[in-house]
Amino acid sequence: MQGSITWNELGVFIIFVFFAVAGGYAVITLKNVNRLVKEAAGLLQKNKDQLNEIIPNIHEISVNTKSMSKNLKKSVEEAGEAVRTISHETTDTVLTITETADSLAKYALVIGEIVQIVVNMFSSSEKGAK
């Protein structure tokens, strides 16, 4: 006894297998979704009192959060401005100190030269007196 399968029968068999696999997958997926929905419902039921307290205050919470974020943004901007100001002030102070140190060094050189001239004047007058 020989059997043969037509292309039509093979196509129907492939479609049947496809739908059987897809149906099994759908059953497993629906089972998992059903489990998640039950867990979510249990969680909502467990926290029903807390949710009933929070829900009327959601608007106030969002307004306060918005206000806090604006204040935080303003504070960060002010801190950034303060850092920039301190940076510029520090740079100016360092430049002033550098210029003052250079001026003091020049004054010290001038005073040193004056003292040397005075010492040379007195030492040359003492040599001439001897």
TrEMBL record:
Gene3D superfamilies: Methyl-accepting chemotaxis protein
Stretches that traverse the bilayer: 12-30
Keywords on record: Membrane, Transmembrane, Transmembrane helix
UniProt-recorded name of the protein: DUF948 domain-containing protein
Taxon lineage: Bacteria, Pseudomonadati, Thermodesulfobacteriota, Desulfobacteria, Desulfobacterales
